[in-house]
Amino acid sequence: MSGQTLTDRIAAAQYSLTGSEVCRAVCKATTHEQTAPKKKHLEYLIQATQESNVNVPQMADTLMERAGNASWVVVFKALITTHHLMVHGNERFLQFLASRNTLFNLSNFLDRTGSHGLDMSTFIRRYSRYLNEKAFAYRQMSFDFGRVKKGSEGVMRTMSVEKLLKGMPTLQSQIDALLDFEVNPKDLNNGVINACFLLLFKDLIKLYACYNDGIINLWQILFFLTI
Questions:
Q1: How many domains does the chain have?
Q2: Which CATH number do you get for residue 186?
Q3: pTM value?
Q4: Which of 158, 180, 198, 219 has its CA 20 to 30 A from that of 107?
Protein backbone atom coordinates (compact mmCIF):
# COMPACT_ATOMS: atom_id res chain seq x y z
CA MET A 1 0.00 0.00 0.00
CA SER A 2 1.48 3.34 -0.96
CA GLY A 3 0.40 6.85 -0.06
CA GLN A 4 -1.91 7.98 2.72
CA THR A 5 -5.25 6.25 2.84
CA LEU A 6 -8.58 8.01 3.27
CA THR A 7 -8.59 6.73 6.86
CA ASP A 8 -5.24 8.44 7.48
CA ARG A 9 -6.52 11.73 6.11
CA ILE A 10 -9.74 11.55 8.16
CA ALA A 11 -7.83 10.78 11.37
CA ALA A 12 -5.46 13.72 10.83
CA ALA A 13 -8.38 16.02 9.95
CA GLN A 14 -10.23 15.09 13.13
CA TYR A 15 -7.32 16.23 15.26
CA SER A 16 -6.97 19.39 13.18
CA LEU A 17 -10.59 20.25 14.00
CA THR A 18 -9.96 19.78 17.74
CA GLY A 19 -6.87 21.99 17.53
CA SER A 20 -4.39 19.29 18.52
CA GLU A 21 -1.43 19.73 16.18
CA VAL A 22 0.64 17.24 18.19
CA CYS A 23 -1.96 14.49 17.78
CA ARG A 24 -2.24 15.38 14.10
CA ALA A 25 1.53 14.95 13.76
CA VAL A 26 1.28 11.55 15.45
CA CYS A 27 -1.28 10.50 12.86
CA LYS A 28 0.93 11.83 10.06
CA ALA A 29 3.89 9.83 11.40
CA THR A 30 1.84 6.62 11.60
CA THR A 31 0.08 6.41 8.25
CA HIS A 32 -0.55 3.21 6.27
CA GLU A 33 2.39 3.95 3.93
CA GLN A 34 4.94 1.12 4.06
CA THR A 35 7.78 3.57 4.70
CA ALA A 36 9.53 4.82 7.81
CA PRO A 37 7.80 7.66 9.69
CA LYS A 38 8.69 10.88 7.90
CA LYS A 39 11.57 12.86 9.38
CA LYS A 40 9.63 16.13 9.47
CA HIS A 41 6.89 14.62 11.62
CA LEU A 42 9.38 12.99 13.98
CA GLU A 43 11.31 16.25 14.33
CA TYR A 44 8.08 18.13 15.07
CA LEU A 45 7.18 15.64 17.82
CA ILE A 46 10.70 15.73 19.29
CA GLN A 47 10.51 19.51 19.50
CA ALA A 48 7.03 19.27 21.00
CA THR A 49 8.38 17.23 23.94
CA GLN A 50 10.66 20.18 24.72
CA GLU A 51 7.76 22.62 25.00
CA SER A 52 6.38 23.11 28.52
CA ASN A 53 2.87 23.83 27.23
CA VAL A 54 2.60 20.54 25.28
CA ASN A 55 0.47 17.81 26.81
CA VAL A 56 2.89 14.85 26.89
CA PRO A 57 0.30 12.39 28.30
CA GLN A 58 -2.01 13.25 25.39
CA MET A 59 0.83 12.66 22.93
CA ALA A 60 1.60 9.29 24.52
CA ASP A 61 -2.07 8.31 24.64
CA THR A 62 -2.43 9.09 20.92
CA LEU A 63 0.54 6.83 20.18
CA MET A 64 -1.03 4.08 22.31
CA GLU A 65 -4.26 4.55 20.36
CA ARG A 66 -2.43 4.22 17.04
CA ALA A 67 -0.70 1.09 18.37
CA GLY A 68 -4.18 -0.39 18.81
CA ASN A 69 -4.85 -0.21 15.06
CA ALA A 70 -5.57 -3.39 13.10
CA SER A 71 -2.91 -2.65 10.45
CA TRP A 72 0.63 -3.87 11.09
CA VAL A 73 1.99 -0.80 9.30
CA VAL A 74 0.25 1.70 11.58
CA VAL A 75 1.12 -0.28 14.72
CA PHE A 76 4.77 -0.72 13.74
CA LYS A 77 5.11 2.98 12.93
CA ALA A 78 3.48 3.90 16.25
CA LEU A 79 6.12 1.80 18.03
CA ILE A 80 8.93 3.32 15.96
CA THR A 81 7.69 6.85 16.68
CA THR A 82 7.47 6.06 20.39
CA HIS A 83 10.99 4.59 20.36
CA HIS A 84 12.30 7.63 18.49
CA LEU A 85 10.83 9.95 21.14
CA MET A 86 12.18 7.79 23.97
CA VAL A 87 15.66 8.22 22.51
CA HIS A 88 15.60 11.77 21.13
CA GLY A 89 12.73 13.53 22.90
CA ASN A 90 12.75 15.34 26.21
CA GLU A 91 13.24 12.93 29.09
CA ARG A 92 9.81 13.77 30.50
CA PHE A 93 8.28 11.73 27.67
CA LEU A 94 10.17 8.64 28.83
CA GLN A 95 9.39 9.48 32.45
CA PHE A 96 5.69 9.49 31.65
CA LEU A 97 5.85 6.16 29.81
CA ALA A 98 7.75 4.63 32.73
CA SER A 99 5.10 5.85 35.17
CA ARG A 100 2.32 3.90 33.44
CA ASN A 101 1.30 0.52 34.83
CA THR A 102 0.96 -0.84 31.30
CA LEU A 103 2.47 0.35 28.06
CA PHE A 104 2.06 -1.78 24.93
CA ASN A 105 -0.12 -4.87 25.21
CA LEU A 106 0.64 -6.46 21.85
CA SER A 107 1.69 -9.98 22.82
CA ASN A 108 -1.21 -11.39 20.78
CA PHE A 109 -1.10 -8.94 17.88
CA LEU A 110 -1.74 -10.54 14.49
CA ASP A 111 -2.50 -8.96 11.11
CA ARG A 112 -3.50 -11.52 8.48
CA THR A 113 -4.30 -8.90 5.85
CA GLY A 114 -2.11 -7.36 3.20
CA SER A 115 1.48 -8.04 2.26
CA HIS A 116 3.97 -8.90 5.02
CA GLY A 117 1.19 -8.95 7.63
CA LEU A 118 1.94 -12.30 9.27
CA ASP A 119 5.72 -11.89 9.23
CA MET A 120 5.68 -8.32 10.53
CA SER A 121 3.22 -9.22 13.30
CA THR A 122 5.91 -11.41 14.85
CA PHE A 123 8.38 -8.52 14.93
CA ILE A 124 5.76 -6.14 16.32
CA ARG A 125 5.19 -8.48 19.28
CA ARG A 126 8.93 -8.68 19.93
CA TYR A 127 9.49 -4.96 19.44
CA SER A 128 6.69 -3.99 21.82
CA ARG A 129 8.20 -6.26 24.47
CA TYR A 130 11.53 -4.47 24.12
CA LEU A 131 9.96 -1.02 24.44
CA ASN A 132 8.08 -2.21 27.53
CA GLU A 133 11.37 -3.45 28.97
CA LYS A 134 13.08 -0.14 28.13
CA ALA A 135 10.38 1.79 30.01
CA PHE A 136 10.54 -0.68 32.93
CA ALA A 137 14.33 -0.25 33.16
CA TYR A 138 13.86 3.50 33.44
CA ARG A 139 11.30 2.99 36.21
CA GLN A 140 13.74 0.75 38.08
CA MET A 141 16.85 2.91 37.67
CA SER A 142 15.45 6.46 37.24
CA PHE A 143 17.67 6.90 34.19
CA ASP A 144 17.91 5.60 30.62
CA PHE A 145 20.90 3.32 29.96
CA GLY A 146 21.08 4.76 26.45
CA ARG A 147 21.40 8.37 27.61
CA VAL A 148 23.89 8.10 30.48
CA LYS A 149 27.58 8.93 30.25
CA LYS A 150 29.85 6.02 29.29
CA GLY A 151 33.55 5.34 29.88
CA SER A 152 35.89 5.81 32.82
CA GLU A 153 33.69 8.45 34.44
CA GLY A 154 30.42 6.93 33.27
CA VAL A 155 27.42 6.12 35.42
CA MET A 156 27.89 2.33 35.40
CA ARG A 157 31.66 2.61 35.98
CA THR A 158 31.23 4.79 39.09
CA MET A 159 28.02 3.28 40.49
CA SER A 160 27.89 2.03 44.07
CA VAL A 161 27.91 -1.73 44.58
CA GLU A 162 24.32 -1.76 45.91
CA LYS A 163 22.95 0.06 42.87
CA LEU A 164 25.18 -1.92 40.51
CA LEU A 165 23.77 -5.22 41.79
CA LYS A 166 20.31 -3.88 40.98
CA GLY A 167 21.31 -2.24 37.71
CA MET A 168 23.15 -5.11 36.01
CA PRO A 169 20.18 -7.55 36.00
CA THR A 170 17.91 -4.74 34.81
CA LEU A 171 20.34 -3.91 32.00
CA GLN A 172 20.67 -7.60 31.12
CA SER A 173 16.88 -7.94 30.83
CA GLN A 174 16.74 -4.98 28.43
CA ILE A 175 19.56 -6.42 26.31
CA ASP A 176 17.86 -9.84 26.26
CA ALA A 177 14.58 -8.30 25.10
CA LEU A 178 16.40 -6.47 22.31
CA LEU A 179 18.27 -9.58 21.14
CA ASP A 180 15.00 -11.50 21.13
CA PHE A 181 13.98 -9.38 18.14
CA GLU A 182 16.02 -11.89 16.08
CA VAL A 183 15.74 -10.36 12.64
CA ASN A 184 17.48 -11.84 9.58
CA PRO A 185 18.70 -9.89 6.53
CA LYS A 186 15.91 -11.36 4.39
CA ASP A 187 13.33 -9.91 6.80
CA LEU A 188 14.57 -6.36 6.22
CA ASN A 189 12.38 -6.02 3.15
CA ASN A 190 10.50 -2.77 3.75
CA GLY A 191 11.15 0.72 5.06
CA VAL A 192 9.16 0.20 8.24
CA ILE A 193 11.14 -2.68 9.72
CA ASN A 194 14.37 -1.11 8.44
CA ALA A 195 13.67 2.01 10.53
CA CYS A 196 13.00 -0.19 13.56
CA PHE A 197 16.20 -2.18 13.03
CA LEU A 198 18.31 0.99 12.88
CA LEU A 199 16.93 2.22 16.20
CA LEU A 200 17.50 -1.17 17.83
CA PHE A 201 21.05 -1.41 16.47
CA LYS A 202 21.94 2.00 17.90
CA ASP A 203 20.39 1.06 21.25
CA LEU A 204 22.36 -2.18 21.37
CA ILE A 205 25.70 -0.37 20.96
CA LYS A 206 24.85 1.92 23.89
CA LEU A 207 23.57 -0.93 26.06
CA TYR A 208 26.69 -3.01 25.49
CA ALA A 209 28.84 0.01 26.39
CA CYS A 210 26.93 0.31 29.68
CA TYR A 211 27.26 -3.43 30.28
CA ASN A 212 31.01 -3.26 29.68
CA ASP A 213 31.30 -0.38 32.17
CA GLY A 214 29.30 -2.34 34.73
CA ILE A 215 31.50 -5.44 34.37
CA ILE A 216 34.67 -3.35 34.78
CA ASN A 217 33.18 -1.76 37.89
CA LEU A 218 32.33 -5.19 39.33
CA TRP A 219 35.87 -6.45 38.71
CA GLN A 220 37.31 -3.38 40.40
CA ILE A 221 35.06 -3.91 43.41
CA LEU A 222 36.02 -7.58 43.64
CA PHE A 223 39.70 -6.68 43.33
CA PHE A 224 39.56 -4.22 46.23
CA LEU A 225 37.66 -6.75 48.35
CA THR A 226 40.46 -9.28 47.93
CA ILE A 227 43.38 -7.05 48.87
A1: 1
A2: 1.25.40.90
A3: 0.91
A4: 198
